[in-house]
Amino acid sequence: MSSEKNRLLDLLGISIPILCAPMVGAAGSSLATQVTLSGGFGLLGSAIHTPERLERELEEVRQILGTDRDSPLRVGAGYIGCWLDGLAEEDAKKLIKIALDNRALAVWFSFGNDLQKWVQFVRDYDSSTGRKTIIFVQLSFLEDALVAAKDWNVDVIVAQGVEAGGHGYGAAPPLRSLVSSIVSALPEDGPVILGAGGLVTGGHIAEIIKLGASGVVLGTRFCLTPESMYPDPYKQALISAESSASVRSEAFDQTGNWMQWPRGVDGRALRNATVDDFERGEDVQVLRSKYKEALPVHNVDRVIIWAGAGVGVMKSVKAAKELVQDLYQECLASLAKS
Ligand SMILES: Cc1cc2nc3c(=O)[nH]c(=O)nc-3n(C[C@H](O)[C@H](O)[C@H](O)COP(=O)(O)O)c2cc1C
Predict the structure, then answer these.
(1) How many CB atoms lie within 10 A of CB 231?
(2) Residue among 168, 160, 163 at smallest CA distance from 266
(3) Distance CA 182, CA 175 (A)
(4) How far is CA 6 from its chain centroid?
(5) Pocket test for ligand 1, best of 18, 19, 20, 23 (most atoms within 8 A of CB)
(6) What is residue 49's predicted lDDT score, i.e. its pLDDT?
(7) How far apart are the CA of 70 and the centre of ligand 1, in A?
(8) What pLDDT score was predicted for residue 260?
(9) Rounded distance, CA 284 to CA 107, Å?
(10) Contact at 8 Å (CB) between 161 and 172?
(11) CA–CA separation, 338 vs 331, rounded Å?
(12) Nearest residue CA, atom 11 of ligand 1?
């Protein structure tokens, strides 16, 4: 593997360059810690947590990993810029500070109009405590990567391609071209570069590493683990889904009635009756009310099941630790062939 890869392993002190995305609703303490224990690195989807819930989850992480209070916690905490912007500034800072006070090794920011503000907040915290928190930002355009590298001086850039499950930029380039353009534009000693979007096999991971990325971030694939918080009917829907079932649409945010995302952000999830009705022009209030009824009973034809473009290739639930190790072996075998 390239020397770039080694920079990720050194930075996080890990042995496998596979990370679990900080997925709201899917990645909690159980999933994140199992990925870390596998040799990869797990992040908590903490974006919409209350302070109490985040404290509790970090405490669970500490217990599972057996980490004492004075040592770094080997997981990251993911924050969404526009959700932070929707809070009073003091409350947003408080939420980030919980991860920092708990010594999370990394924080992750995405989808905000002013992510630099939060990056700076973490840098200031580090200056006042003498610590070093690893800062990730997820983005989808080369121009943004140049700013994050040169002006914000982030540690890790996660290039999110249009194939990605969950929220993302509808106009994002496909992952392979995005990673290539960012790798060629940034200096070798710039931020570590990772790829995310539609990756579900070791062969996929090898392709991204061959393009010069140090590693990868997987989301949807980790939803199909016993440790993910996705309810069982959602997991069954992921297993049954064909590749064509993963669609980008504004139907999801309209139906969920979620707050304003930055311009150009929509979501990728499984096609179901909600999407079909939205495309037919159904009144959004009707969609919302059917969605609310469907949520408690996990009616998969109406709820939102975030899923990336690789969904058609995932056919089984596998424990997170085993999954990471199997993916890595497949990746190494694929790299050895090339
Ligand atoms: C269920 C789910 C929840 C997600 N939640 C977040 C989130 O809270 N913050 C974030 O930055 N990205 C989130 N994402 C996007 C991931 O960071 C990542 O870009 C994506 O999962 C990669 O594509 P893949 O799902 O095809 O592997 C989520 C994705 C999924 C599938």
Answers:
(1) 15
(2) 168
(3) 11
(4) 21
(5) 23
(6) 85
(7) 30
(8) 86
(9) 35
(10) yes
(11) 11
(12) 110
Whole-Å CA distances, 200 to 6, 21, 193, 204: 22, 13, 18, 7
Query: Residue 88 in 3-state DSSP?
Result: coil
As a whole number of angstroms, the distance between CA 314 and CA 224 comes to: 8
Dihedral of alpha carbons 203, 204, 205, 207, sign: positive
pLDDT above 80: residue 4: no
Mutate-to-test residue for ligand 1 from 19, 20, 24, 323, highest number of ligand atoms within 8 A of CB: 24
* Domain segments of the chain as ranges: 3-230+316-337, 232-297
pLDDT value at residue 184: 98
Measured in whole angstroms, the distance separating CA 128 from the mean position of its chain's CA atoms is 28
Task: Encode pLDDT of 310-336 as tens digits.
Answer: 999 999 999 999 999 999 999 999 999
What the block records as the tokens of 208 is 């991204």
> What would the two tokens of residue 128 be?
């006042």
Q: From atom 13 of ligand 1, which residue's Cα is the shortest distance away? A: 23
Check whether 112 has a pLDDT greater than 90. yes
Class in CATH terms, 3-230+316-337: alpha beta
**Which of 31, 48, 163, 306 gets mutated to test ligand 1 (max ligand atoms within 8 A of its CB)?**
306
What is the distance between the terminal CA atoms of the chain, rounded to a whole angstrom? 11
Phi-psi region of 111 (alpha: psi -120 to 50; beta: other; left: phi over 0): left
Ligand 1 pocket by Cβ (under 6 Å): 21-26, 45, 47, 78, 80, 110, 138, 160, 163-166, 196-199, 217-221, 223, 306, 308, 310
The answer, yes or no, to whether residue 162 has pLDDT greater than 60, is yes
Report the distance separating Cα 145 and Cα 26, nearest Å.
Answer: 27
**Is 200 in contact with 314 (CB distance < 8 Å)?**
yes
Per-residue model confidence (pLDDT) at position 243: 94
How does pLDDT run across 70-84, given as a tens digit for each residue? 999 999 999 999 999
